[in-house]
Amino acid sequence: MADLKKLRDDTLAAVERGAGGQLCYNRILDDTARGIYAPMIEVLFALAPEMMSRKIAEANVQQGFVLDTSLRIAGDVRAPRILCVGSHEDTACVSMKALGYDVTEIDPVANYDLNAFCELPTTGAASYDLVFSTSVIEHVRDDEEFVRQIGWLLAPGGAGVLTCDYNDAYTPGDAIPGEDYRFYTQRDFRERLLPQVPDCALVDSPQWDCGAPDFVYHGCRYTFATIVFRKRP
After folding, report:
1. Looking at domain 2-231, which CATH architecture does it have?
2. Using alpha carbons only, how large is the chain's radius of gyration in Å?
3. Which residue of 59, 67, 68, 163 has the smallest Cβ count within 10 Å?
4. What is the Cα–Cα distance from 98 to 93, expressed in whole angstroms?
5. What is the pTM of this model?
């Protein structure tokens, strides 16, 4: 356990140095971010090697960001209550558990989607200090309800950490991967999603400008973005 703590602490410090001591939590996950989160991606390979071998290398920045951010948030809470939404094949979730965190996992492949989980009699409001979800929301038809439910699950002071497929130039009707309902834009974040959680606020000033998306999948060019918000005390 001491070795795992040192691995975690050393990697968090390495990411901090890579970001010049100025980490941004609401951001684009582009090649610059891939460099910043390279130490955390190495940890993912160390803790979940088989699963990581199946991933698209350029997309691993999302899991690197989620693991790093989740560790920072969880590290500020004694015995944090953590929920992973979309845990199937989520290397950040596997790594959090390997590092000693107790994580509740939900995924329609294994048990529940978020809507079904929220309807369980055993699920209560304000139950979690951290809810994270890696590249799930673009696959959800009712994304506004998805965000509302995450807000409902968060305890006061708790944080939601999400990544998504993003292209700020996207308009409905543009080509997207077949498994997506949409790409996200700043307007989606500001005008549709954040108003669904009026008792929450972004943890920092967003840096969502992206003039040149650098990821290509199924013939579609886009990038990844993050949205990290905290429930007000």
Report:
1. 3-Layer(aba) Sandwich (3.40)
2. 17
3. 59
4. 9
5. 0.97
Residue 20's CB: how many other CB atoms inside 10 A?
A: 8
What size, in residues, is the chain? Answer: 233
Hey, where are the domains in the chain?
2-231
Q: Which of 142, 134, 145, 223 lies closest to 186 in space, CA to CA?
A: 223
Q: Which tokens go with 103?
A: 């994580």
Region 74-79 average pLDDT: 94
